[in-house]
Structure formats: C-alpha cells, structure tokens
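Quick one from the shared queue. A colleague (R.T.) flagged (S)-mandelate dehydrogenase as missing a structural entry in our internal table.

Convert sequence to structure tokens.
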Amino acid sequence: MKMISHNDYRRAAKSKLPKMVFDYLEGGADDEVGLQHNLSEIEKIKFAPKRLLDVGSRNISRTILGKSQQAPFAVAPTGLNGMFSSNGDVKIARAAAKAGIPFSLSTASNASIEEVAKACDGELWFQLYVIHRELAKQFVERAKNSGYQVLILTVDVGVNGYRERDLRNGFSLPAKYTPRTILDGALHPAWSLNLLKNGMPKLANFETAELNDIEVQAALMSRKMDASFNWEDLRWLRDQWPHRLVVKGINSVEDVKRCAEMGIDGVVLSNHGGRQLDSCIAPIQILERAASSVDISVMIDSGIRRGSDIVKAVALGAEATLIGRPLLWALAARGEEGVGEMIQMLKDDVDRTLAHIGCADINQLDKSFIYS
C-alpha cells in the first residue's frame, strides 16, 4: 500500500500488530475523551495566510535548546518500542539521526541507555521516570556518561492513568499468555515469528546486575513512581545534571514560570498524549500564554499529527514539538525505513504549510499567521 499520510501508517500498524499491542500504542485514559480533545483543539486553530510574499525558497531548520536542528520537532520519549518492531528504540534513533532531529529515549525502553548511544550518532535526549531517588541518580549518571545532551524529567505520572484497554487486554511485560492472546498472536504470524526469533522485549535499563529487580520493573510497568517527588527534589535533580534539563508534563502557566525561576532550561507542555488524566486541558490551549511568560524553551506534544500542526504550535510560541504516535505507527508498519519516511513526510508538510501561509522561514512565524 502506498503511504501518503500518517493515517495510512496507522492502518498498516493496526493490521500488523496484535490487538493487545495496538491498543497499548493507541489507547488513552478512562473514556479516552482526552485523546480526541487534543486533536480537536489543534484542529480549531486556523491559519491567516499572507500573500504576494517571496516563498520561492524556504527554511524549516530550528534552534532547539540552543542547538540547530534540521526541523522544528524532535522524537518524543515512548516506552516499549520493541513491542512494535524488534530493536525499535535503535531503529527510531537511527532514523532521527539521519534526519537531523533529536531522539528521546524513555526510561521504559527496550534498548538500554548505553546500547542506543553506541548504535546512534545523532543527538540523544534521555527521559527520566523517578521511581526512587537512588535509582534516578544511577540513570542520570549513565545518561551523562553515555553522552546524552538533554535530560527530560516526566512529572505527570505520579500514579498510573486508568487505561481501560490495557486492563481489559491484560497487557503486561512479560506477557501473560492466555487462549485469547495466543489466538491474537496466531492471527498476526509475522509479528509472532519476529517475537519468537528475537525474544520478548525487556526493560533493558533494568537489566544490569544492580537493577535487575522484578519489583522495580513491576513498579515501572504499573507507573508506581515516586509520587512524593516535588519542587525541592527538582532542585536536587538540577544539581545532579550538568547539561540541559527539561520538565515534561506541565499543564499550567504558573508551573512554567516556576520552572524558569529554578533554572530549568525548558518545559514540554503535555498531557501524556491523553494517557494519564482524561479530563485535562490540551497543551495547545495554554501554549501562547506559557511561551510569552518566560524566556526558556517551551515545547509541546500531545495530538501533533501533521506538519501543519507543528507550524501552528511554532506560530503560537513553541520552540519545537515532540512527535510520538505517528512515528510508532510508522515503526510498526515499516520499521526503520517507515520512521524515516514519516519524519520526511512531516518535514515536507511543514515546508508546504509555510509556502501556503506566506512564510519563507519558520523562524519568522508569529501569531499574525493565526486567525483570531
């Protein structure tokens, strides 16, 4: 099938993955109202194009957290990518490096911090879940020693979102084999054969002798994070990490300001893609106010599907967006090649949108290109 949009990759991913795995990728919290809300709030934003301007050549490169990148977006941290394609973390990281955009590795990755660093020569960011402090300190040290340039602290998972699809399917790692899951696997033979060949994905960052603890891994899978982690603990983390530090999961202008006051280098406005709190604002709703209130990097995720969505976000003040599900659909559909195709599709859409609205350089975008 010819792939001409993210929806084509989504359909291909759905056909290739067992229902349990696709539901994990696709699902949200509770009634999944938040998933649609993220999309609808972005859809409400309309462009106000400008005409008779020279857009014969266009620039989509963008400085993100002080470094020039080839596009105004980065790869969002996503867990269990090995469930969608063998060695999925490395495949996405390699595709991102080839495309000249940053890749974010999740704490819940199936390739370790060190493995991805050895396999990829692009810019690497590491996303940290705090389960307990000593473990967090070890992860920070490993990321620092492996050359990761940015640390992303995710703060919206004090407890796990109530993901009904996963609960109904009995989704877990390692997988629990039931007649239903065995039948589902049999109906997706390519995925199952790949699993037999490469083995069940593991939480690779916990496979060291010090961290090979079933209780710790179970805590991560059930999102039993350190719910007591607070602003003072964030100061501790700031002291631990010598490079750029980003806080992800912010949903209020007040919290953005507080991060800036504490010397945090950037924030990601995010509701975890609708996977945590169902009745939550879409990050795009506070983007303009948040970005205008501070001098630090303000990025955004949750609901970004097309290059035009990225252009909207930058026009409203975002330094960049993070891309999650579309890249995972592409990974499941066509592996590393598919991820590269999706990144290029997004780049092309950003470029085309700039031409349509009369802006030759993404760095010249502002609110004047948005109808209000």
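The longest helix spans residues 325-357.
The domain at 6-369 is CATH 3.20.20.70 (TIM Barrel).
Added to the table.
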